[in-house]
Amino acid sequence: RCASEGGGGGEERRELLHEAPVQPKTEALPEYPHSRRRRQLKVEYEKDERVSPMKTERWEPADWRKQLGFIREMRSGRDAPVDNMGAEKCYDMEAPAHVRRFQVLVSLMLSSQTKDQVTAAAMQKLRAHGCTVENILATDDEKLGKLIYPVGFWRNKVKYLKLTSAMLQKEFGGDIPSSVEGLVRLPGVGPKMAHLAMDIAWDQVSGIGVDTHVHRISNRLGWLRKATKNPEETRKALEEWLPRELWSEINWLLVGFGQQVCLPVNPLCSVCLNQHSCPSAHKNSPAKRPKSGSPRSPSPTSSSKIKTEPKQEAALKDEMINKELLPTSVSHTTKRRLKTKVNV
What we know:
By secondary structure, the protein is mostly helical. Among the domains are: 122 residues, no CATH class; 112 residues, Hypothetical protein, domain 2 (Endonuclease III, domain 1, Orthogonal Bundle), CATH 1.10.340. It contains 15 helices and no strands. It is globular. InterPro entries: DNA_glycosylase, Endonuclease-III-like_CS2, Endonuclease3_FeS-loop_motif, Endouclease-III_FeS-bd_BS, HhH-GPD_domain, HhH_base_excis_C, HhH_motif, NTH1. It comes from Haplochromis burtoni (Burton's mouthbrooder). Belongs to the Nth/MutY family. Its main location: nucleus. Its EC number is 3.2.2.-, 4.2.99.18.
């Protein structure tokens, strides 16, 4: 009723609101004492022929399983720098668990834009000095710089190590965070380090650790729906299709493969088992396999600079900024094994 009809209407409305609801008549259902499971009903709908079903096919690169198998085969020797000097090899296995985790994080922080050999040497000096949160905080900047030199951007890393150690002592009791979100809050720690720290230190796979090697090789192999510009874009693109059970292994495989065969400049396509399926094969590689000791052959003891074509200079600069300065040589045993497989 309208409000203008007077106050009596309000009382009528209140009475109507408080009236007991009408109870519908129901019939008692038969009880089944020996069966408490509810019956499953099958509901069928008439198909509308005018509406076409949506296709949600999961994208994945062609031949990726075969290519991954070949990379595993080429990496079976486990003789790349990452195999002996990566973050998994740089901590003191006899130290308490929280100290081991801290040393894993430190090695990852030092490894940014630094060769594995240099990182391993710096970690050896730090461990001899005492690589704990307390010792890092008690060491002055000058001494700490001498211990980690000549890792890339060592001055910045001295600052990051001090700030991170202070944060770990204050907020985490000297241990490292057990989540990606907590790790990336630490000064000098990015997504790649965080995912690798979760894998190595906490034995939890939170994501793919994508460094410059994984980023470069994934683009060269065509393992991405579209080309990516940085490692973080590559990580997200890989995680869209790569099975999760491979997320931990893929970093180790591709890093070593990038150190020995799929080099940043002049990749050794002629000894790569994927040369017939890789869309980038032989585009940036030398015409012939370089002989040992030649200027074009990468050697850890050689002081000669790698010669590059004008078009490759920009790519080399990007790689140097991201991580490595010079590629690592393939061992003579690995070269012979790869050559035999290619010839067969």
